[in-house]
Design a protein that fits this description.
Helix content: 10-25%
Distance between the termini: 48 Å
Number of helices: 4
Largest sheet: 5 strands, antiparallel
Order of helices and strands: EEEEHEEHEEEEEHH
Shape: globular
Strand order of the largest sheet: 7-8-9-10-11
Number of domains: 2
Strand content: 25-35%
Bound molecules: zinc ion
Number of strands: 11
Length: 182
Amino acid sequence: MRPATHTWRPAACSTCQDPEARLVRGDSDRTDIVLCTRCLEHGHLPYYAPQDLVKELAPTQVLACSSGFLQIGTPLPPDGLAPSTARVVDLAETKALRPGWRTGRVRHDLILSAPGPHGPAGWITVGARSGKILRGTITSATTRHAKGVQAVRALIAALPAAPCPPLCDAATVEDCLLPTRS
Ligand SMILES: [Zn+2]
């Protein structure tokens, strides 16, 4: 058996938000859609396009059909992360950066991508042997680079907590990040 590479959870329905909802394949004549098992009971049409679900995923997440319904796979973190690295991952989580790992042999990349059209995005590089943060790059209104765990942590800490609503209508990232828009 291959070692597990992802943790899996059922894909949620963002329309009815019923925790019992499962997204299943369409009928044989509508294999291009997925159906929510609970939407009808909540008074919604249950039909969804798979590509819309993919848009809601973080860059490192994958969608797969297993046990008859759609599930979201999140890559497991690499072994041997330093405590200082784990704390920065937690911080990125609180900033809604949806941190996700791309594990390598020499280095690991933590991919950051907040939802919404103007959400900050970037990556943090971690040494595979040390488990420590080497450097990071974040693009928000501007692109900033940082070297070492302290500077990378400061870069993330400086980001607003919820920078961009999913349906943000600001024309530019500068407008979106105006404090009055919250
Ligand atoms: Zn639903």
